[in-house]
Amino acid sequence: MKGNVLTPEVKENRQAGHDIDPVFLNRWSPRSYKTDPVSDEVLSRLFEAARWAPSGSNEQPWRFIVARTQEDKERFYPFIAEGNRIWCEKAPVLVLLLSKTISSRGTALRSHALDAGAAWGYLALEATRQDLVTHAMGGFDPQKAREDLGIPSEYEPQIVIAIGYQGVKEELPEALQEREKPSTRQPLESLVFEGVFSQK
Questions:
Q1: Which helix (H) or strand (E) holds 161?
Q2: 155 DSSP β-pair partners
Q3: Element (H, E) at 69
Q4: At what angle do helices 112-129 and 40-51 cross, to 10 degrees?
Q5: Helical H segments across the chain, by residue range
Q6: Is the pLDDT of residue 80 over 60?
Q7: Is the N end or the C end of the chain the one with fewer CB atoms within 10 Å?
Q8: What would you measure as the largest C-alpha separation in the chain, in angstroms?
């Protein structure tokens, strides 16, 4: 499994500043997918991991709409931005992540997007452990998604997620091939501040 040791492409492009589990570095966002299907059992493991994400007051506001059949994926394509459709149509699984904006008490749930993001993170890490790749897309039309999929008003569309097995970059359009590698991250000192905010 990719979670155990760093993959060659990750070793070449990423280096942790501190000792962390390899799964965190091995998770990245390829655009090249094989058309191989993902089994029910393996896919269920991803959603099971997401189910255990933390959430404010344990509201668990995340919901997932899954498209695996060609008919269901065809419902997704019209609201996905053209720049993403170029590559994501080959992915065997597309998922729309929603967050419920109203709490079980009927009040506004301020942490709904944050909590849904935590669930996405858990899903993505478990996908890496299962030798799958994921790519989250913000490039889609939330209102069209709402209309096309019958999403109630109290749910907010957050991201579309492509899930599948990694393909070869040569099958991507030439402009995307150059970007098909793990990206690096900003150093900790530009992200973590002691006591007060610091602009660096």
A1: strand 155-164
A2: 100
A3: none
A4: 140
A5: 8-13, 22-26, 40-51, 70-76, 82-88, 112-129, 142-149, 174-177
A6: yes
A7: C
A8: 53
- CA neighbor of 153 nearest in space, from 105, 94, 108: 108
Say how far apart CA 15 and CA 10 lie, in whole Å. 8
- Is the CB of residue 135 less than 8 Å from the CB of residue 99? no
Burial of 109 (0-12, 13-18, 19+ CB in 10 A): buried
Task: State the Cα–Cα distance between residues 137 and 83, nearest whole angstrom.
Answer: 10
Please name the residue that has the structure tokens 């109203």: 102
Q: Could you tell me which residues are beta bridge partners of residue 157?
A: 98
Cα separation values, 141 from 2, 39, 63, 103, Å: 33, 29, 18, 25
Torsions phi, psi for 161 (to 5 deg): -120, 125
- Residues forming beta bridges with residue 133, ordered by sequence position: 164
Q: Tell me the per-residue pLDDT of 84-111, one tens digit each, with 9 for 90 and over.
A: 999 999 999 999 999 999 999 999 999 9
- Residue 180's nearest CA partner among 191, 188, 171 is 171
Q: Does the global pTM surpass 0.85?
A: yes
